[in-house]
Write a structure and sequence with these properties.
about 280 residues, about 75% helix, elongated
Length: about 280
């Protein structure tokens, strides 16, 4: 049986198209698995989400978003090593993927591997230099690693975009007092107090800085304010006693015990979102 040139051309064309059609089907499967994984992740069914995102990544191994979603599901399940590997796979698929660097940096921060975290946040910020979240996360890593001056630089970048972010003011004030830049620390805590005048934490922080600075009168005033809000507050009671003793003796108080910080871990990354690659 002879095949006409026209028929032969059609066969060759279909043969060439089949891999592309298969790839299209694979991407459709990846999108389907990814979408189902999102629903599982929303209800915190992490094992189910992990399985679905693994299938999505297998169907479309060049899709960085599939690995990012898988990493977020692993992170949600508390499997940080696996999460870091998934984000690394996202970077293999797309070396300049901002989300992968950011997410892997957050995982490293959770593991207290601050040096690696900072490296990833550096790379993320090279891709998006004005991203507030990346500055915020890097500042947190610097803060936890006691690199207070660099933390302040990043907190300044965050506050430029979000000047009323009280959590960032709190953390920057904490960094300033560790740098012994007490006036700037007082300014940050005073701004927090102005915004939340009935919250005792701002007064307690400011009284601590007054104690470090040797400002007894203002320190006592802040302790009194705390005690008016919380009459049994042990921190304010003991600090006020030290202030009053120092006032009578005319000498500095003993080195105060540092207040336990309310420094929260970085906010979690966004819920995974499916993405169709075209």
């Amino acid at each position: 049986m002879k095949i006409s040139p026209r028929s032969l051309s059609l066969v060759l064309l279909l043969s060439a198209l089949l891999p592309a059609i298969a790839r299209g089907d694979d991407k459709a499967d990846a999108y389907k698995f990814g979408k189902e994984g999102i629903e599982a992740a929303k209800s915190k069914q992490w094992d189910k989400a992990i399985d679905l995102f693994q299938k999505a990544a297998k169907a479309d191994p060049k899709g960085a978003n599939n690995y990012n979603n898988l990493g977020l599901a692993y992170k949600g399940a508390g499997k940080f090593d696996e999460a870091a590997k998934a984000f690394s796979s996202a970077l293999e698929a797309e070396p300049e993927n901002f989300a992968a660097y950011l997410n892997r940096g957050i995982v490293y921060t959770s593991q207290k591997n601050y040096e690696k975290a900072v490296q990833d946040f550096d790379r993320a910020l090279k891709i998006k230099s004005d991203d507030v979240g990346a500055h915020r996360f890097r500042a947190f890593a610097y803060l936890e690693n006691k690199d207070f001056a660099k933390a302040v630089e990043d907190y300044n970048a965050v506050l430029k975009a979000k000047p009323n972010d009280l959590a960032i003011l709190d953390r920057r004030g904490f960094a300033y007092w560790n740098m012994k830049d007490y006036d700037k620390a007082l300014a940050d805590f005073s701004a927090i107090i102005k915004a939340k005048p009935q919250d005792k934490e701002g007064y307690l922080d400011r009284s601590y800085v007054y104690e470090l600075k040797g400002d007894f009168a203002n320190g006592i005033a802040d302790c009194d304010k705390v005690l008016s809000l919380d009459p049994k507050n042990e921190d304010a009671t003991s600090r006020k006693a030290r202030f009053e003793f120092a006032q009578k003796k005319g000498e500095a108080t003993p080195t105060p015990t540092a207040r336990p910080r309310r420094t929260l871990p970085p906010e979690p990354a966004a819920t995974p979102t499916p993405k169709r690659h075209r």
